[in-house]
Write a structure and sequence with these properties.
It holds the Pfam family Sod_Cu. This is Superoxide dismutase. Belongs to the Cu-Zn superoxide dismutase family. Keywords: Signal. By secondary structure, this protein is an alpha+beta fold. The chain has a single domain, classed as Sandwich (Immunoglobulin-like). About 10% of the residues lie in helices and about 30% in strands. It contains two helices and nine strands. The strands form two sheets. A seven-stranded antiparallel beta sheet has the order 5-8-9-1-2-3-7, covered by helices on one side. It has a two-stranded antiparallel ribbon with strand order 4-6. The longest helix is centred in the first third of the chain and has 13 residues. The protein is globular and about 35 Å long. The structure holds copper (II) ion (CU) and zinc ion (ZN). The site of copper (II) ion (CU) has 6 residues, from strand 5 and strand 8.
């Protein structure tokens, strides 16, 4: 099994509705198949039994890094914020992850704004099965092992609410509910 197939298998686990599975598989087929995910992250709840609630993958593509994956166990229709935070720790209910990854001292903003945090990402909205997917090219980060803009060894944080893309310093997106360390695939 090559890495693309492995990623598909992870993304298309039994908990995932077929529609969501097909969506993620389709997304994976649109990019350059030479570029395997360089980085990955297993997203876990920050409280309770710290159950796994999602998977994220990052791979270099033309002009940026494709961030793709899914979150599970959301409320149907729930919209949540996802960001890359500056410290690779999920301790203390995710607070140890610090603020948004921001190597150039920019304000929090819409993820498409090149004058915003490098770690800003679009909100995700769950389907009727509580599964939300993301497929987004972030132009402000790299998937390299190290470097000023590399997100290796940083952390994804999922928040309880949506990012308004405006409020400082983090979009008023609510409590940290899940977290995952980003690591080499
Ligand atoms: Cu965040
Ligand atoms: Zn931000």
């Amino acid at each position: 099994m090559n890495k693309t197939m492995l990623a598909s298998a992870l993304l298309c686990g039994s908990a995932l509705a077929m529609t969501g599975c097909q969506t993620v598989e389709g997304q994976m087929q649109t990019g350059n198949p030479v570029n395997q995910p360089a980085l990955k992250s297993t997203i876990k709840a920050v409280s309770g039994d710290k159950n796994e609630v999602g998977q994220m993958f990052l791979r270099p593509v033309d002009g940026g890094v494709q961030v793709y994956g899914k979150l599970m166990n959301l409320q149907p229709g729930q919209t949540v914020a996802l960001h890359i935070h500056e410290t690779g720790s999920c301790a203390d209910m995710g607070k140890a992850a610090g603020g948004h990854f921001n190597p150039d001292n920019k304000p929090h903003s819409n993820p498409d704004d090149m004058n915003g945090h490098a770690g800003d990402l679009p909100n995700l909205t769950a389907n009727e099965d509580g599964v939300a997917t993301i497929n987004y090219v972030n132009k402000k980060i790299t998937a390299d092992e190290a470097g000023k803009y590399s997100v290796n060894r940083l952390a994804f944080i999922v928040h309880a609410g949506a990012d308004d893309y405006t409020s400082q310093p983090s979009g008023a997106s609510g409590d940290r509910v899940a977290c995952g360390i980003i690591e080499m695939n």
